[in-house]
Amino acid sequence: MTIHEVAARAGVSPATVSRFLRGQSVRSPEAIRAAVDELGYWPSAAAQSLKSGRTHTIGVVVPDITNPYFAAVVKGMESVTRTENYRILLANSDESSEREDHVLADMARRVDGVILAPATERDQTPLKLRDSKVPLVFIDRDLMEGDEFDAVLVDNVDGARQAVEHLLGLGHTRIAAINGPPDTTPGRRRREGFLAALTARGVGIAPEHDLIGDFRESSGYQLTLSLLSLPEPPTAIFTANNLMTLGALKALHDMRVDVPGRISLIGFDDLDTGPLLRPPLTVIDRPMVEQGVLAMRLLLRRLDPQYVDDIPRRIVLGVKLIDRASTAPPKGQHVPPPRARKARPA
Amino acid sequence: MTIHEVAARAGVSPATVSRFLRGQSVRSPEAIRAAVDELGYWPSAAAQSLKSGRTHTIGVVVPDITNPYFAAVVKGMESVTRTENYRILLANSDESSEREDHVLADMARRVDGVILAPATERDQTPLKLRDSKVPLVFIDRDLMEGDEFDAVLVDNVDGARQAVEHLLGLGHTRIAAINGPPDTTPGRRRREGFLAALTARGVGIAPEHDLIGDFRESSGYQLTLSLLSLPEPPTAIFTANNLMTLGALKALHDMRVDVPGRISLIGFDDLDTGPLLRPPLTVIDRPMVEQGVLAMRLLLRRLDPQYVDDIPRRIVLGVKLIDRASTAPPKGQHVPPPRARKARPA
DNA sequence: CTGAAAGCGCTTACAG
DNA sequence: CTGAAAGCGCTTACAG
Description:
By secondary structure, the first copy, chain A, is α/β, with parallel strands linked by helices. Chain A is built from twelve helices and twelve strands.
């Protein structure tokens, strides 16, 4: 089923069919339309790509599609590709730079652009993409040398600061952090914000309370166990992403630790089940679907020759604390004056 | 950067470079290897596809990637494409047949095969795919005329039966169901299993307890609200998927209904947060990642000319009940003899 | 507006 | 094992 058959049936040349299909005005649109419909003709994407150099496909590389944050982000992206005649080639990097390298090299000749949440800030392959003229937009995570790329990020430092201020306000002083990998943007920046906020208020942090996880649930679980086994466990834990928060909560449940009675827990990123958990989680929330939408818009814009040389757009979204029930004043601590807590959302 | 430049640099013809790249033995492999590496050559996917008729890409169409079940399924699929030099073109149908039609028509000329969870059992476009020789594998959901396709499904009837037996065993007799759309396989079959199990035990169901949702969280929420407003509300609710279970639980929380004290809740599909919810959810669990793996293997097998005409494989996996804490004997009911409950998983 | 023709970058049957 | 050549199915500059 090729354009030639359609042309023959409609009594015109393939060139005319092609023109009709791309919306140019032709002499016998009805005949061509009819031929296309009757034959059920659909152009070959491979042939079109080969000719035009455009695939109308966007590569999306995320660490883990089963992380609800990235699932939401991808959904946001698709909501814009849908109306723009683009499609998404999806790959997981599993938080591995090596895997990411393979995927990006493979995508380079198959897509018009890539949206990437890099496994680490030091990944080199993304820079090569630029050399081969494949536009790249970062989401959630940045590159060390990322300033020259479009990006959609959030204010990680401020998020961690809000979490710390919240805990300090409740009277906590022994606060632990389960951070992400220091070579990722959210791992590094959230830890920076955490430490800075503590320092700013003159509160110290024990080295054994400053832990590094890998953003996976199991590391949240293990590191929480290790915190609980300390001679002097913290009275509050800040977890740097949703999956590690879940791991921490599981560990606290398994060890029969009352939350927030004995330990308060506050995590970065909300979950669909956040309000339903035991206890409902206090979290730092950020736009998710919206980030995907913005990143895809940035990329599609960059594909337009008119904007290809615009200076990079670096979008940094704000985050906000959702105060539910997993944080409370530390046990045996003087309870600070009551403050308004948001009611549980209806 | 084409194969001609590599050929020139290596002092051979493009044909020889092509042969080397596909693993055939050639006279000067080192020179070609060097030229490829120095030039950073990567073949044009479009040109290869046009020539070979193969895209080495698989289309995956799911109702909603933010549903943790489908996210896990997609992850399973990717774990097999990864080692087989295939990639995934992902699209959401948003539970809409119309949207699915668009997506499938678009994919037909871009992929070697499609894995689909159809929006309804009556969708027609999948049948057209077959006519255009694009292999199709169903996952989670089937088509009315689906017998001629490979499929990976679960025993929905048995799952619903297990849920009902469990509730009956606890002493419930006023059991409501929040079903999925009757034109989807899981919507229809889970309801059939539910009604059949009740009937088999001689327990009736009030029409107002037999509800139809749309698999979205909001419908679980709304329908639970409507159940609560009944003069005689049920003492137990069976929800036909994970998202509606969450919606139901939110409604029960918001209306301050004690679970399982006043109403027991059992849902189809487990959640990562299942054990952490308030209360921990009793659910019908099924393999998720594994279903994705199986579906992709089926499809890749079908792509092999050797198996293209094999009879369709219809894989039906078993499901099992995970007994946590959202179900209990109805209030004021005679408590049946104690039965072993599984301990909360560690 | 239209058609003949060239060419996008590969792969492969063919002849050597 | 190798190379010249044809051809996959489109799009588009060119001439009319």
